[in-house]
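Researcher: Let's continue the batch. This sequence belongs to Putative manganese transporter, and it's 422 residues. Same format as the previous ones, please.
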Amino acid sequence: MENVSVNTTQTSLWLQCRRLLTATGPGLLMAAAAIGASHLVASTRAGAEFGWQLAWVILLVNLLKYPFFAAGARYTAATGESLLHGYQRQGRGYLLLFSLLNALAAVASTAGVAMLTAALLTQFIPLPIDLLALIVLVASLLLLVLGHYRVLDRVTKVIMLCLTVTTLSAAALAFNAEPILAPGFVSPSPWQWAHVGFLVAMMGWMPAPIEVSCWNSLWLLEKQKQQRVTPKQALFDFNLGFITTAILAVVFLSLGAMVMHGSGVHFSPSGAKFAEQLIQLYSQVLGEGSRYLIALVALLCIFSTTVTVVDGYSRTLILSVQLLRKDEVSERGLNLTMLAVSLLGLGIILFFKGALLPLLQFVMTLAFMTTIIFAWLNYRLMTSDNLAPGDRYGVAMRLLSWIGMTYLLGFAALFVYWKFVG
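Model: Same format as before. Here are the structure tokens for Putative manganese transporter:
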């Protein structure tokens, strides 16, 4: 009888784990959107330039932004509607404010991730980066138009697993490598006035722009069309994706710190050169023979980010417009929105003429300056009467939210002073 009881318990635990895993998708899609420029570029560059000094900042930023990202999964799981519907319930002006800022972020972010994808693609195809960016955007549109959420959900899980295994392996090998610091080398401090711009840019997309919480909300609704997702499953999926992004951000920083810091090598602003340096970072510890495999994994990772960015921003944009106009969401409208976002993003890429790091710094800084408004909108919604008392944020989440908004507002004010006065 005891064996029967043990087997029953094991079966029950297995079924619970299986249900949680089959419900995953929106949270991992959010992670795929996050593990792009903020990790491959900002985290790695932070480690390369300042060693381990900014590791605690990355973890703190993730913690302080957590309540605003969690709003997407928690609100939708509790109400069965998206964050955008929640903004509209607060008042038409709140949805309009979100829509205007979201449109600006959509074009800039699409340009940033598409150029980074094109930069990595130069490792395989010797074409101008602008032309490769066009190819990337066309491929993204085709994937989304033909497959939409179902394909995106399946492909992302495989790519995320490959990237995670590769990056963790590289970091583990780098720990055993000989130190490259020259005798007498002193790490520069990131807490200097000249580095305020870099700090703000790094935190702007760490782990991702806060409006990504709306994508998570819409992706959860799409997932619920395929199967039932309970609030517990939705929160597990979100937490799994969010914690993964935070851990990998520190892992990417460790690669920069252990392989490039103190070597005298700095990342080039040129997109193609930057991609070459990034792949070299991995191949130094995994071996030159792994160069193209690493390049392929990194390319697939950032390509999945591009696809999720185009899909996520377009979904929120078309739904915002149709809620404001009281129309129904149409497949044709979504496709046209994705096309418009891609074309405008391509225009920004052409303007920056292959200068990847300046473009990404511009996009990340823009994200940070608008973050406080997106954070406030989500906090207001998660403490409003639209939610049942048991679904609203409690004392701990309210306190963390206020600390987070104070930090965001304080750094935004510091950046404005640094940029225009100091």
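Researcher: Any comment?
Model: The chain has one domain: 25-181+192-420.
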